Amino acid sequence: MASVVQFIKESYEEMTQKVTWPTWGELQNSAILVLVASAIISLVVLGMDKGSNYILDTFYKSIN
Q1: Are 30 and 22 spatial neighbours (Cβ–Cβ below 8 Å)?
Q2: Each residue's pLDDT tens digit, 13-38
Q3: From CA 19, how far away is CA 10, in angstroms rounded?
Q4: Contact (CB, 8 A) for 55 and 47
Q5: What pLDDT score does 64 carry?
Q6: What is the pLDDT of residue 61?
Q7: Rounded to 5°, angle at Cα 37 from 33 and 40
Q8: In the prediction, which pLDDT does 50 show?
C-alpha cells in the first residue's frame, strides 16, 4: 500500500513541477491542425468509398 501512495505522490509532483504545459495558443494551433487533418482524411475515405461503390456498381450492372 505504501508503494501506491508513493506512486501517487511522485505522479502529482511530476505533473505539477516537472511537466511543461503548452500555452493556450499552442493548444489552439494543435486543435486546428487536428481538425484540418481529420477533415482531409475523412474526404479521402469518402472518395475511396464512392469510388469503390461506383466500380462495384458498374461491375455488377455489366454482369446482368
Answers
A1: yes
A2: 999 898 888 999 999 999 999 999 99
A3: 12
A4: no
A5: 73
A6: 94
A7: 145
A8: 98
- What's the chain's length in residues? 64
Compute the distance between CA of residue 39 and CA of residue 31 in angstroms, rounded to an integer. Answer: 12
pLDDT score for 11: 92
Q: What are the angstrom distances between the C-alpha of 6 and each of 14, 16, 18, 19?
A: 12, 15, 17, 18
Place of cell 469503390: 52
Q: What are 6-13's contacts with CB under 8 Å, separation 24+? A: none
pTM of the entire structure? 0.66
Three-state DSSP state, 23: coil
**Residue 63: CA count within 13 A, CB half-sphere:** 6
Other beta carbons within 10 Å of 50: 10
